[in-house]
Amino acid sequence: MLARPSYLDAIQERFLDYPIVALPGPRQAGKTTLARRFVETWTDGPVHFFDLEAPLDRRELENPHSTLEALTGLVVLDEVQQMPELFPVLRVLADRPEQPAQFLILGSASPELVKGAGESLAGRVSFVDVTGFNIRETGEEALAERWWRGGFPRAFLARSDKASRQWQQDFFRTFLERDIPQLGIKIPSSALRRFWSMIAHSHGQIWNASEIGRSLGVSDPTTRRYLDILSGTYVVRQLQPWFENLKKRQVKSPKVYVRDSGLLHALLEVGSAKQLYRHPKYGASWEGFCIEQILSVSDTLDAYFWATHSGAELDLLIFHQGQRIGFEFKTSEAPSTTKSMHIALADLALDHLYVVYPGERKFVLTDKITAIPLLGALTVLVD
Fold first, then answer.
1. How far apart are CA 147 and CA 278, in angstroms?
2. For the domain 5-127, what is the CATH superfamily, name and number?
3. Mean per-residue pLDDT of the chain
4. Residue 92 pLDDT greater than 90, yes or no
5. In sequence order, what DSSP letters do the residues of 130-156 get, joined into one string?
6. Is 317 exposed, middle or buried (0-12, 13-18, 19+ CB in 10 A)?
7. If you ran DSSP here, which 8-state letter would residue 329 be given?
């Protein structure tokens, strides 16, 4: 497992101000390993670790208030979505004036998907979103492999591409047949797998519920529910549109992406990295990969795309340290400016626009447009 010091530092910092720190993220993203590494650094009292998928630990928490109230130091609750009845208890314990214990909770489903979680802990919890490895962790020399295999630790660190793909196929099966039903969601795994594949083929495109619903033979509200489930379990991203007060018709539906590039390639049945370069979704794969990398380090929820019905668009808009920063993602080795970039720069009043491409050199295109490698774009946001 690679070292992930930025996460450890973030957890430590959040505990200075909050009694509860949550690590949400997809299954198998390394949350448990990260929590155990944080435990190794903990010096402020005892540590109590509960795995809520372990029968003995669940039995110990059958009377959660009396069990947790007696504990001091650090209490770690892994896969907390398995016991949503814990959230009201945590609210009460977090409000104790002396705060004898702090709580690190790990979850593979969003508070919106786990009934009652968001309301119970509002104002008492700080979230540190955990994703798969990003290229600041793997190193720039591993960019191509990270893009191809994805960021899940077991997929990225597998002994071969074949073993990596096998892990991804096993992940699909476990996720659909075990994890989703454990959340109380009763949807045939085959239907949700087919829907997920359709999302992969729509990766980077505007969400069209009617079109996908017709293909599946289900209603628009049903496709909306499927999308919310996959978004709420951190395997699909809905990138929302941004609106400006312009005299232009602007797109108002979100774009959809499979968040992990390795899972995307598995769903598209791309057989090898060489095949990816010839695949119709090559450019969209790069776009989604870059978006996830940027959002993994930007520490902002203010992320959008922008598009008009006349054809002007911007792949990603984020608000970072009081600035409006735009990103375009190009697979060309020598990207240049486009009319659409200049329109976005003017209409959105961008402070700067970065064209992120799979090259190695940063160079200026105009005074406000810069071509930059992906790792360079991440460095701009972190340093």
1. 15
2. P-loop containing nucleotide triphosphate hydrolases (3.40.50.300)
3. 93
4. yes
5. --S--HHHH-GGGHHHHHHH-S-HHHH
6. buried
7. E
Contacts (Cβ under 8 Å, ≥6 apart) of 319: 300, 302, 325
pLDDT tens digits, residue range 96-155? Answer: 988 899 999 999 998 777 765 556 788 899 999 999 999 999 998 999 999 999 999 999
Structure tokens of 179?
């994890």
Q: Are both 5-127 and 135-382 of the same fold?
A: no
Out of 3.40.47.10, 1.10.390.10, 1.20.1250.20, 1.10.10.10, the CATH code matching 135-382 is 1.10.10.10
Q: Give yes or no for a contact between 22 and 105, defined as CB atoms under 8 angstroms apart.
A: yes
Specify the pLDDT at position 166. Answer: 98
pLDDT, mean of residues 152-178: 97
How far apart, in Å, are the Cα atoms of 261 and each of 172, 181, 294, 356? 14, 25, 14, 17
Question: Is it the case that residue 246 has pLDDT exceeding 90?
Answer: no
> How many whole angstroms separate alpha carbon 343 and alpha carbon 368?
12
In this predicted structure, what is the pLDDT of residue 1? 66
Task: Indicate the domain borders of the chain.
Answer: 5-127, 135-382
No. of H helices and E strands in the chain? Answer: 19, 14
